[in-house]
Design brief:
Layout: E1 7-10, H1 23-36, E2 46-51, E3 54-60, H2 63-66, H3 73-85, E4 93-99, H4 103-111, E5 116-121, E6 146-149, H5 153-175
Parallel strand pairs: 4-5, 5-6
Antiparallel strand pairs: 1-6, 2-3, 2-4
């Protein structure tokens, strides 16, 4: 039994959605991808994209590795999935990501026609799926995405907090004066 609060909204104005039975399983896979990121010097954000109950793309952020500002995990996974399916229309797919997508990624999710988005932690600074903006629900766009936010939120947030605590600790150690032996 999950001990978390899940916010569910359907930007297509249907009755409230219920999490699907395998959502937690796929989110765990996204968390596993996120856990790999710090070893590569990346922020621990992971994602998997699922089509017909099969993971067709998985990954983590690659911004630091590639020095590409667009190499957010959502963009990486969307590109991999489009290549795998041989179409840019990723209809009937679900994207699981450990952090609420930013405006760029939310736009790519809409443009690629992903049907469902399930994310872990809310992002009050850059979130574009309900926190600051709500791009998937924007009625003026030609496609809307069903969104489930906050699934395994605690685990997703803890990965990020641990990473940034360690990064701040390493930064303060490298800038603090060394103690002299008496």
């Amino acid at each position: 039994m999950l001990a978390c609060t899940v916010t569910i909204k359907d930007s297509t104005t249907s009755p409230l959605l219920q999490p699907e039975p395998l959502d937690s399983y796929y989110m765990e896979l996204a968390l596993q991808q996120a856990a790999l990121a710090p070893q590569a010097g990346e922020v621990p954000i992971g994602a998997v994209l699922v089509h017909n109950h099969e993971v067709i793309a998985a990954g983590h952020n690659y911004r630091e590795i590639s020095q590409d500002p667009t190499a957010h995990v959502e963009m990486v996974v969307i590109r991999k999935a489009a290549e795998q399916l041989r179409t840019w229309r990723l209809t009937d797919t679900t994207l699981y990501v450990t952090l609420e997508p930013c405006p760029m990624c939310a736009g790519a999710i809409v443009q690629s026609r992903i049907a469902r988005l399930v994310f872990g932690a809310w992002d009050p600074k850059a979130g574009a799926c309900g926190s600051i903006f709500d791009i998937p629900a924007e009625r003026r766009l030609n496609h809307r995405v069903q969104v489930v936010g906050g699934l395994l939120e605690q685990e997703s947030r803890e990965l990020l907090q641990t990473f940034f605590r360690a990064k701040r600790g390493a930064l303060s150690e490298s800038t603090s004066p060394t103690k002299r032996a008496s």
